[in-house]
Write the structure tokens for this entry.
Amino acid sequence: MTQSGTIYDISVVLGKESMDFPGDEPFSLTWTERMQDGGACDLSALRMSAHAGAHLDSPAHFLPGGKTLDQYPLGEFIRPAQLIEIRDPQCVRVGELEGLEIPEGDALLFKTENSRSGRNRGGVFLERFVYLSAEAAALCVRRKVGLVGLDACSIERYGDRRFPAHRRLMEGGALILEGIHLGHVPAGRYTLVCLPLKLSGCEASPVRAVLLG
């Protein structure tokens, strides 16, 4: 608990609930030393994609010369957020966003069937998931949303190599938060905290994403 209310952890457990997008480095944890085997301490090593689990994408992911995460001030990763429930079982469409009022620069998070079904933290990649339409991404840019979050390992329809949602958001200056789980979080207003690792020149980073309500 915080003075303002509940803390909702919207990250997935790496290696247990997270899924590896095809072509990405699979997440793995290996022990290099164990006390139970006579070692002086427990010591582990991690291998994973920068897009493992809950993670942020920066414009450098798709735009040549785009900003990397270390080029943003920390305040960009802590911002007011609006979580809305999406009922469409296929994708986030403009129809469910029209009339939505969100202050410029705020985060907009979409809770979909991905979270309600629990398939976004089942540990196995599925090609069919609720994605963000290019038209909805364009609307977010017009509304000057600062960060868009979706409860899937990608905002993009699987197999669409044009990556229209990514490109429209990034060209509009919005950060993208993927791989979150929102099944336990009611729709409403929150403060989003999603701090990336302090990496130099990276297009993405895993985060520990939480909502303060």
